Amino acid sequence: MIKMTKAPGPHPGSMKYAPVGDVENESDFAAIGEGGEKEIHVDCGGIRRCNSVGIKGWIQTFKKLTGSGAQVFFYHLPPTLVDQLNILKHLLCGGKLVSILLPYNCTGCSAEQLLVGKLTDIPAIQANPPKSKCGKCGADTEFDDDPSQFFQFMNWIQKP
Predict the structure, then answer these.
(1) What one-character-per-residue DSSP string does 39-69 give?
(2) Cα distance between residue 18 and residue 16, in whole Å
């Protein structure tokens, strides 16, 4: 189930939405763009999991919005949606990807953490994922996926 928060966007007349939870059968995205905004910013960082029925609803919603002329910008796409984007080239429905969340794992305590990766920085991250420090124990963290698989979407994504 998705909970949705809504706030004014970065530009006059724009709106920012932040879905939190799981994109699944009961997920309702109808609130996104209900005010007729032509510039929509979606912070996806609170999405944990998704299933095929939820993704179908996602695509229907964003296809309708971009089809009506709205500009849609996606921020903090979590690994679960990056995985979907690697399978479904049309997941963003013509919207623009601004940033993703990169999966990292601590070498000391095995804690998982997500770091923001801007789309403009992805080629460098893809070539050499940077190390970071664990927020819990301070040990080094490492990129927790196969870069050649995780970043497949870069072969077809619309660049900023």
Answers:
(1) EEEEE-TEEEEE-HHHHHHHHHHHHHHHHTT
(2) 7
What the chain holds in terms of domains, given with CATH numbers, is: 2-103+146-155 (3.30.750.24)
pLDDT digits (tens, 9 = 90+) for 122-156: 999 988 888 899 999 999 999 999 999 999 999 98
**Structure token digits, residue 23:** 């994109």
Cα dihedral value 51, 91, 8, 32, nearest 10: -60
Does the pTM surpass 0.85? The reply is: yes
Count the alpha carbons within 13 Å of 93 in the hemisphere toward its beta carbon.
Answer: 20
The H or E element spanning position 22 is: strand 15-23
Cα separation, 20 vs 32, whole angstroms: 13
**Would you put residue 156 in left (φ > 0), alpha (ψ -120 to 50) or beta?**
alpha
